[in-house]
Design a protein that fits this description.
The complex is a heterodimer of chains A (about 525) and B (about 700). With about 525 residues, chain A is of the alpha+beta class. Chain A is about 30% helix and about 25% strand. In chain A, helix 1 packs across helix 6, helix 5 crosses helix 6 and helix 7 packs parallel to helix 9. The chains are: A alpha+beta (about 525), B alpha+beta (about 700).
Chain lengths: ~525, ~700
């Protein structure tokens, strides 16, 4: 039996494996949304697909990969052999989010048995479908959204399946990018697998298993300690949305458990705004983790005390044909609702609302200097809310993003061939006696040749919420100033034609305020 | 053969160190001295330590000076008020930063505050494109008002950073000239004077931080030079840089930010130079001090220099970028003084908190109650309790024992087991750091020699080397002052990084060659202006390549003039280097993103003279035996050697301990040891020969 320090050493090795994997992916990826936005998650999972460690750029990708690997294990069962590598991107088949997010998962074998899994998820710039960037606001079913990869083998016992590679590259508008991103993910997995095999060689597979179980117990202890520090009770709330609908949910907190009840959700959306049940669960995990243990440390134990209730056929538990392209905006609104709901009850524990949008902005076209196709896929930064101690933070990515980097203007101009006219803080009014919300951002892109724009964001109509009688925060906005002098405002839209000289102007909301104590 | 005297002085937070090396007919004589650092007049401490070491400035042929003044001014926020002039529409760049939240579950995360507040960030109209062509002409009409505003607000230094200045410096140069015309005596820097790489936030922040420390560093270096020259120092000292080279005092005063990480750089350069000397060009270098451990990989005798350097960056904070050439290193909070602690969930951790010099480890007996790595090493018999810190301190074993017992009690293990656990966890932290610079970049550690220095390097080196299965472990002579030795081995060196996109295809060679040629001409002119003999100047050319559409680059060493005929070899070298690091290669176009030119010239470098290998038996150096707990390998009776009595050519086997006034070398069972002609200790691990 391994002593406690050996177990610590193994645990650290497993953490390092996920982090190394993340670094490989960051350095080798082709798509800026992977290497800069870090719309990426990596994870080490145990032989049953339970989360062991993760290296992630964004919190909403922390608890995704366990669901993917569990689905693969359930489907493939005992056909899984050493050297297999699986792909999935379909929320009905362990993909969790939307078709752009491709999971690459491989089992790790030591002495003939599976001891762990390594997996990564990354947003590919284009996976086919009707719109460049694959995120159309007009689709009503998943088959129209792009190529579906329902847990297929990319490698079969170490042998590459060329047919799968061909199908993928022929179904993307950016074949070089997806090929590069795919290999980046495979390479990342190999790096982590090597580390895990070394740990098994050094300490034995049994010790590895004990280390995993011990770390999971620690994860659960940390979470329970966090729950005990929270105010127990039952909290229910209603959140108004931009389209006037009301969302309802409740949270029950005890010393041992948090239950988030989303059963009273709106029906599944006709458009591409649906969350799979796994997707809704992940949103709840983000908020729950921020409340009970906001350190980056996370494994299956961290999330064990969380229970999420959903109803099939609703927005948060969509059915098999539902469209998902803009799932991330729904997931953002779900986190925003949970945060607002509890902030009413615990106004000193939680900051006032932030701009609460991914604000995914896609501009696709041909580079005016090189003639090469490009697709800019970027989230936006916005203002954060005031806390009980200070004003809100200026210009950061949303809570569902994290160690996400904006694209430098100098690189954007070179890569996409448009001009960035301005990138500045956008402040709300300062009101006496208030701790004000942080500034959003104003950014404008001036097109040098024609392109196509897709965009989606929340808080277009309903302003960002405040707490303790503070003034509301701002609203998010995207406008296009046309060369003929007209100005068009868009909220959720795709395939918008942009001409040479058109200027895309984005203003993101400033955060919510509160009365100064 | 005449006598040559070289000295290195190093100003740290607490102490100012001196190493003097005298070479002459009688061989080499090394003198060391230490005295208090004397803020704010640091030059006093330097003069003090020279007096203490018996050094008359008049006799010094070559002096190198290392200082932490820049990094301290930054981390303690003791710079000056800076005003920024930037491109219209972008004055918030340094506050927006990259928008990231590394502590991503924390809803209370706070961004690092910019070093220039918004009211001192000003704009001028005018735009360059990424190709370096002018899109909107520069308008200087507002600069006069800006200068008036800066003066009224007490600005003491001005930073200029305009979009795409890496591609065309004209606008920045014009703003610089205009401000200097209006305000001749202001301390000022434009971003292109520091770096020619893209990414406006990183470059702007670099210019701002450089301006922030410029008056402080210029005053410091000026005072130092004046006092030393007044005492007869024949020529100004050279200043240690972050790129493992030295630079002239005048050049450093103009752009002091290049000193920011000079502390660790000299040790790593020493490792590279020692590797060449002992014919081990592939080195894993490990420097363990009181607070941190740092490591870096040296391949083919060359250190790796990068410009992706950040201060105050962690899992909890985004930090601040400084885009200057810095030796590629990984640093972790694990040194001799690192505190062991048990978290709320019964897990043992070591560091990053350090007990520092005061109270120091519990065994110092100065009131420290926390167990540190040093206490564990003492408890296990690895450090001699009767020769603690070279005999300078009486080890307080009761305090050490109590501190370790407290850890053991929390974990439910014995005091011995707690001490073993601390050493094992500390070793594991360091192994992971070493892996980051080696295995994780596709290097096989079996091809590398682990070179360990700093006060604590030799204590842990063998355990780490065994874990990583390195070729062998080497502990240099005078390991505790190895960094100073490295300073005296440094060249006058400048690293030029220039962003320049180019396809790697037929017809592109001339353009690439032109970028190198231009940078080389600039280097030649700069060196010449400083009176360096052009014949002494050598260049290394690196290209930064990637597959088209990627972001991150892989650096490849280029051989000779870039011609169209050489492009396919360059591409092959890139594919090979890429595959080694990432396990695959792509059939995709390769593009160059920029160049990295190293220009260097030898200035007064130390030449080492080998001693004849004797055949004396090592037993003359034996002090005795004691029981040593090797943690993983259990307790063994080890032979104790006096490091000062070991001579070239001696050999012996482990288990053993070598005690030196500055450091303790832990030799494990089944190791074999030999002393080379330069008094370095070579340790072969089990089964090696």
């Amino acid at each position: 039996m391994a002593d406690r320090f050996t177990l610590d050493v193994i645990s650290q090795g497993l953490d390092a494996a996920a982090v190394e994997m993340f670094e490989v992916l960051r350095k080798t990826a082709m798509s800026p949304i992977i290497y800069e936005v870090l719309d990426v998650g990596t994870g080490v999972l145990d032989a049953h697909g339970q989360l062991v460690s993760s290296g992630a750029g964004i919190p909403s990708f922390i608890g995704v990969l366990d669901k993917s690997v569990q689905a693969i294990i359930a489907k493939m069962e005992d056909t899984i052999v050493d050297g297999d590598v699986f792909l999935t991107n379909d929320p009905n088949y362990g993909g969790v989010t939307h078709l752009n997010d491709v999971v690459v998962a491989q089992p790790v074998f030591s002495n003939g048995s599976c001891v762990a899994w390594v997996a990564s998820i990354a947003h590919w710039g284009d996976i086919g479908g009707r719109t460049p960037g694959s995120m159309s606001t007009k689709t009503t079913e998943i088959v129209a959204e792009g190529l579906r990869l329902p847990m297929v083998r990319l490698f079969n016992a170490g042998v590459r399946n060329e047919a799968v590679v061909d199908i993928i590259t022929k179904n993307s508008r950016l074949p070089d990018f997806v090929r590069g991103d795919l290999w980046a993910q495979v390479s990342a997995g190999r790096r982590a697998a090597t580390t895990i095999v070394q740990l098994c060689d050094g300490f034995g597979a049994d010790a590895l298993q004990v280390a995993i179980t011990t770390a999971r117990k620690t994860g659960e202890q940390r979470a329970v300690a966090g729950l005990r520090a929270l105010q127990s009770g039952h909290f229910s709330f209603v959140e108004e949305q931009d389209d006037g609908t009301l969302w309802k949910a409740s949270i029950t907190i005890t010393d041992e458990r948090m239950t988030i009840d989303l059963r009273d959700a709106p029906a599944e959306a006709a458009g591409p705004y649906n969350l799979s049940r796994d997707g809704a669960f992940v949103a709840c995990q983000v908020f729950y983790k921020a409340l009970v243990d906001n350190d980056r440390f996370a494994n299956a134990g961290s999330f064990a005390p969380l229970e999420v209730l959903t109803t099939p056929g609703t927005l948060f538990h969509a059915g098999p044909t539902a469209a998902h392209a803009y799932y991330f905006e729904t997931r953002m609104k779900l986190v925003d609702m949970l945060w607002h709901g509890l902030a009413e009850a615990m106004p000193d524990l939680l900051p006032a609302g932030h701009f609460a949008s991914i604000f995914g902005t896609v501009i696709a076209g041909q580079h005016p200097d090189t003639g090469r196709r490009y697709a800019m896929v970027e989230p936006q930064m916005g203002g954060w809310g005031a806390t009980s101690k200070r004003a809100g933070q200026n210009a950061m990515f949303s809570t569902n993003h994290g160690d996400t980097f904006n694209c430098p203007v100098e690189i954007a101009e070179a890569r996409y061939g448009f001009d960035v006219l301005e990138k500045a803080l956008f402040f709300g009014p300062r009101i006496k006696g208030e701790l004000s919300g942080g500034a959003g951002v104003r950014i404008s892109y001036s097109l040098r040749n024609s392109a196509v724009l897709s965009v989606g964001y929340s808080h277009a109509n309903v302003p960002v919420w405040s707490v303790r009688n503070g003034s509301s925060g701002g609203r998010n906005c995207l406008r296009i100033s046309r060369t003929d002098g007209t100005i068009d405002t868009y909220h959720f839209a795709s395939d918008i034609a942009l001409g040479q000289g058109d200027v895309v102007e984005i203003e993101t909301a400033f955060g919510g305020s509160r009365q100064a104590p | 053969m005449t006598t040559t005297k070289r000295i290195a002085t190093d100003v740290g937070g607490t102490f100012t160190d001196l190493v003097a090396i005298e070479t002459g007919p009688e061989g080499m004589k090394i003198t060391t001295a230490k005295s208090d650092t004397t803020p704010p007049n640091f030059e006093t401490g330097v003069l003090n330590v020279m007096a203490k070491g018996g050094i008359d400035p008049k006799d010094v042929d070559f002096m190198v000076h290392g200082t932490t003044v820049v990094i301290n001014a930054l981390t303690e926020r003791k710079g000056v008020t800076v005003g920024l002039i930037t491109t219209e529409g972008f004055r918030d760049t340094i506050e927006i930063a990259r928008g990231n939240r590394p502590d991503f579950f924390n809803l209370h995360y706070e961004k690092p505050e910019p070093f220039v507040p918004r009211y001192l960030r000003t704009e001028v109209p005018g735009r360059m494109t990424y190709l370096g062509t002018e899109r909107i002409p520069l308008d200087l009409s507002g600069v006069s008002d800006i200068v008036t505003h800066f003066r009224a607000e007490g600005v003491q230094a001005v930073a200029i950073s305009l979009l795409h200045s890496y591609a065309n410096t004209a606008h920045e140069e014009a703003v610089l000239a205009e401000v200097q015309r209006l305000w001749p005596d202001v301390s000022i820097v434009a971003s292109h004077q520091i770096t020619r790489e893209w990414r406006e936030y990183e470059r702007s922040n670099t210019a701002v931080l450089s301006a922030y420390v410029q008056p402080v560093a210029a005053r410091y270096l000026g005072n130092l030079d004046d006092s030393l020259r007044a005492q007869g120092l024949p020529q100004s000292p050279y200043i240690m840089q972050s790129n493992c080279g030295v630079d002239s005092l005048a050049a450093t005063s103009a752009v002091p930010i290049t000193m920011v990480e000079s502390g660790p750089a000299s040790g790593f350069w020493g490792a590279a130079e020692l590797g060449k000397l002992i014919d081990e060009p592939d080195i894993l270098a490990l420097d363990i001090g009181g607070t941190t451990a740092k490591c870096s990989l040296i391949e083919g005798g060359e250190v790796r220099i990068m410009t992706d350097y950040w201060i105050e960056r962690s899992r909890k904070s985004a930090g601040y970028p400084i885009m200057v050439p810095v030796v590629d290193l990984v640093e972790i909070g694990n040194g001799g003084g690192s505190i062991a602690w048990v978290d709320d969930f019964d897990k043992l951790h070591v560091g990053p908190q350090s007990a520092g010099a005061l109270p120091g480890p519990a065994a110092y007996g100065k009131g420290g109650t926390n167990a540190t790595t040093t206490d564990a090493n003492l408890w296990l018999g690895r450090i001699n309790k009767d020769y603690f810190c070279g005999g300078a301190i009486d080890a307080d074993m009761d305090s050490a024992g109590n501190a370790l017992k407290a850890i053991g009690d929390k974990l439910g293990v014995s005091t011995d087991e707690a001490a073993q656990g601390i050493v094992r966890i500390a070793n594991n932290n360091m192994v992971n750091a070493l892996k980051l610079v080696s295995l994780n970049r596709g290097h096989d550690t079996r091809d590398f020699t682990l070179l360990a220095f700093g006060g604590g390097g030799a204590m842990h080196a063998v355990a780490l080397g065994q874990e990583l299965q390195v070729k062998k472990v080497v502990v240099p002579a005078a390991a505790s002052v190895f960094s100073a030795w490295g300073m005296m081995m440094s060249d006058l060196r400048r690293d030029y990084f220039v962003t320049q996109l180019a396809d790697l295809s037929e017809g592109s060679a001339m353009g690439i060659e032109g970028v190198f040629a231009k940078a080389e001409a600039e280097a030649r002119a700069t060196f010449k202006a400083e009176g360096v003999d052009p014949a002494k100047l050598t260049f290394l050319r690196y290209g930064k390549f990637r597959y088209q559409n990627q972001e991150h680059t892989t650096e490849v060493l280029l051989d000779g003039t870039v011609t169209d005929g050489a492009l396919s070899k360059i591409a092959d070298d890139f594919h090979g280097a890429y595959e080694r690091e990432y396990t695959y290669r792509l059939d995709a176009p390769v593009e160059m993103v920029g160049i990295h030119l190293v220009a260097r010239a030898e200035v007064g470098k130390l030449e080492m003279v080998p001693a004849p290998l004797g055949d004396a038996d090592a037993s003359v150096a034996v002090k005795g035996t004691r029981d040593v707990d090797y943690a993983l390998e259990g307790k063994h009776s080890a032979t104790i050697y006096d490091g000062e009595k070991l001579r070239a050519g001696m050999a012996f086997n482990g288990p053993a301990i070598i005690e030196d006034p500055g450091t303790t070398v832990v030799i494990h069972p089944n190791n074999t040891v030999s002393i080379d002609a330069y008094h370095n200790i070579h340790i072969l691990l089990e089964g090696q020969s």
